[in-house]
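Input record (Table S2, row 273):
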Amino acid sequence: MRQRPNNRLKGQSAIVTGSSSGIGKAIAIGLARDGANVVVNYHSDEEGANHTLAEIEKLNLHGSAIKFKADVSKEEAVEEMFAKAIDTFGTVDILVANAGLQKDAPLHEMELKDWQLVIDVNLTGQFLCARAAIREFLRRGMRKDVSCALGKIIHISSVHDIIPWAGHANYAASKGALTMLMQSIAQGYGKYKIRCNNVSPGAIRTPINEDAWKTKAAYNKLMKLIPSDRIGEVEDVAALCSWLASDEADYIQGTTLYVDGGMTCYPGFTENG
Ligand code: BGC
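Output record (beta-D-glucopyranose complex):
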């Protein structure tokens, strides 16, 4: 456990989308460990969401957690999720928009439905959740007793918001666009004390990229891309998100924080170019 429990998010409530597994699950647990109430959002993996809840309950801290099924690409579902969060916890202080997926194919073989699905979930889903969060922050007003921010939005992006990725153009396009969404939010709502930032993970050990780390050969190949010479773990991302959601990060605004072991340093150029 890299994150030591503390109370920096006590009294705050968070929605973490896609927290039935992988990075989202670790983020939900991490926020709870720091005292937040958490909505564990899932799309189809209810068992996974139950497991996240069980892990949070084991921590036995001040906050509580509920699960909520919602497809983040659907306007009505997102509205219902926020209504449930507000009904249960009184408001939402922190949004970690993490839900995302890959539907990989070389561009000339990519079907429109796979392009569309990735854009719908990874980009439109982020827009719908951010919009709902901003509306709630503005409605509710400041809560100086819990935070010096009106609200915090963390979009989970990817190193592929800056590293092109052949065979994954839908995914890279969705993440690249997310940079402009995030910066536009920060630019427009910073004056209301809303903070909006992106967290961009590199290769993190989750089911989404199993092919890249499961076998020794794949893992060794992957290491050519990572100066830190290890794959990332979900806790690496979770620890950053908890800090970023807290007032300790009050001056972090409109930026992208990479959690990638140096992948964005393009190590392929070390002895080349
Ligand atoms: C992708 C992973 C990939 C990593 C580094 C992530 O955004 O979801 O599949 O391993 O980027 O390339």
